[in-house]
Design brief:
Layout: H1 8-24, E1 41-51, E2 64-75, H2 79-93, E3 97-99, H3 105-111, E4 118-127, E5 147-156, E6 167-170, E7 176-178, E8 184-192, E9 201-207, E10 210-216, E11 224-226
Parallel strand pairs: 5-11
Antiparallel strand pairs: 1-2, 2-4, 3-4, 5-8, 6-7, 6-9, 9-10
């Protein structure tokens, strides 16, 4: 919407009508040809919407751009000089874009009027996309460094049987290792937050055709993970 509450199509049509009045030397009413328009003059009517090339940028979401194609039709002998002045003004200024393609008989049958001299005029329009607003920061920004620690443990099966060659992954990170012949593993890169010392760490264990997950206490100095096969 524009500042005065008009939509983009309405605004584009009103701007074109104002420009046409100056170029033709007389007011140009907005309305379909033959529908109560000027008996001897020009009428302008939005005919269709056409896509336009969209632009991209880094400064937020760009507006959606399109073109409003208008039909400028002449009615009566007095309209021809005005149509000439509009065509000359548009060609001289290089805008708006004018096309001499309004001779389709089906177009005039749709309006219920005989064919007449006319121009197609494309007017650019756009719909602004609201920018996302970041929520206000209500608290002071705190930055603290989270350290890393080493996690040692064992992976066993039922009856404390060591499980070798099990892949041990730190969930959500690229860190992983494998258990040795005694089922032991050592995993580096485990986050350590001094303000949350008891926060559990999620591990993913893959091997023996199964995948297990476990939440462990990284401060546990005698960490044992039991991987029992799923019940059948």
């Amino acid at each position: 919407m524009t500042d005065d509450g008009r939509g983009p199509i309405e605004a584009a049509t009103a701007d074109l009508a104002a420009w046409l009045a100056g170029a033709a030397g007389a007011a140009v009413p907005v309305g379909p040809p033959g529908d109560g328009g000027a008996a001897d003059g020009l009428t302008v009517w939005p005919l269709e919407l056409r896509p336009a090339r969209q632009t991209q940028g880094s400064a937020g979401r760009q507006a959606y751009r399109f073109q409003v194609r208008h039909l400028l039709a002449a009615a009566g002998p007095a309209a021809l000089p005005r149509l000439d002045r509009v065509l000359a003004a548009a060609v001289t200024a290089g805008e708006p874009e004018v096309l001499l393609e309004a001779g389709d008989p089906g177009l005039w049958r749709a309006f219920g009027v005989p064919p007449r001299p006319a121009l197609l005029i494309d007017v650019p329009a756009q719909v602004a996309r609201p920018a996302s607003v970041a929520p206000p920061v209500l608290r002071p920004l705190r930055l603290r460094q989270v350290g890393m620690r080493r996690l040692d443990g064992r992976v066993v099966g039922p009856e404390e049987q060591p499980l070798a060659a099990m892949r041990v992954e730190l969930a959500g990170t690229p860190y992983a290792t494998h258990t040795d012949a005694a089922g032991r593993f050592r995993l580096d890169g485990v986050p350590h937050d001094p303000e949350q010392p008891g926060r559990p760490v999620r591990l993913r264990l893959v091997g023996r055709g199964h995948t297990h997950t476990a939440e462990v206490d990284p401060a546990d100095t005698d960490l044992v993970i039991v991987c029992a096969p799923p019940a059948r």
